[in-house]
From TrEMBL:
Domain of life: Bacteria
InterPro entries reported for this sequence: Phage_phiKZ_Orf197
Membrane-spanning ranges: 36-69, 90-110, 130-148, 180-198, 218-237
Sorted UniProt keywords: Membrane, Transmembrane, Transmembrane helix
Record-given protein name: DUF3307 domain-containing protein
Organism: Sporolactobacillus shoreicorticis
Length: 238
């Protein structure tokens, strides 16, 4: 049950932090306020099918936490770095774990309201499985791309700075599809087939990999981290 609560709050965080944020690098505090308000709205919207007073209090607390963390970052004028980004996300995950643990300790249950539960029952969808796969698909797209970009920034070859916007978008899409396929393969127990996915990805870049050592290392680190990210995400939600 704690994993279910953790998944619920993590999905809210993923939506509020990664998918519905405006420009966080604008340098204006009004963006911090607006983003925090958006974070709260997303939290309340996602809460509707599961509404209960403990959950309402929990999402308010996590929304306040978001506002505090973003405000501290703004006041300290910290430049967004990989270490700062990772630290920030670990703080969020830590507080999400604490809130989920408290709800479990107080013996609360995460249950859909009757109308939503009845609807899913009629179309034979398990609510827990639905929540799990929503979380997996959400975390495999934008959060993964942002995280990998942050962590690989210092390994990026200098000549890669001139890569066009369309190439960057294509690379992000390839990585997203790669992670989704890996998640599907893990879910059906086809672990060995993951190697085929990585092989197919490498074939498309074979010439550049063989001719450019710096790019080859950058590409390998990115591919391995993307794979590790997908596997880690699966075990977080499943």
């Amino acid at each position: 049950m704690i994993k279910l609560f953790f998944s619920f709050f993590l999905i809210i965080h993923i939506l509020g932090f990664f998918y519905f944020q405006s420009d966080r690098r604008s340098g204006k505090y009004t963006y911090i306020v607006r983003n925090s308000f958006i974070y709260l709205l997303i939290s309340l919207f996602f809460l509707i099918p599961f509404y209960s007073s403990p959950l309402l209090i929990s999402v308010f607390l996590l929304s306040i936490l978001h506002f505090v963390i973003e405000s501290v970052n703004y006041l300290c004028k910290k430049r967004q770095t990989a270490s700062l980004f990772v630290t920030e996300q670990l703080i969020y995950l830590g507080f999400i774990s604490i809130v989920a643990s408290i709800l479990i300790y107080l013996d609360y249950r995460l249950e859909l309201l009757p109308p939503f539960n009845t609807f899913l029952s009629k179309i034979t969808i398990n609510p827990d499985h639905l929540l799990t796969w929503i979380g997996l698909l959400l975390i495999a797209i934008k959060p993964a791309n942002v995280t990998i970009k942050q962590l690989l920034a210092k390994y990026k070859p200098d000549h890669e700075e001139s890569v066009s916007y369309n190439q960057i978008k294509a690379g992000a899409l390839i990585g997203t599809l790669e992670r989704i396929i890996i998640l599907l393969l893990i879910s059906v127990g086809q672990y060995s087939a993951i190697g085929l996915v990585l092989t197919a990805k490498s074939v498309a870049r074979y010439n550049k990999i063989s001719e450019d050592k710096a790019f080859a290392e950058y590409y390998l680190i990115g591919s391995l981290f993307s794979t590790l990210y997908a596997i880690g995400a699966y075990f977080i939600f499943i």
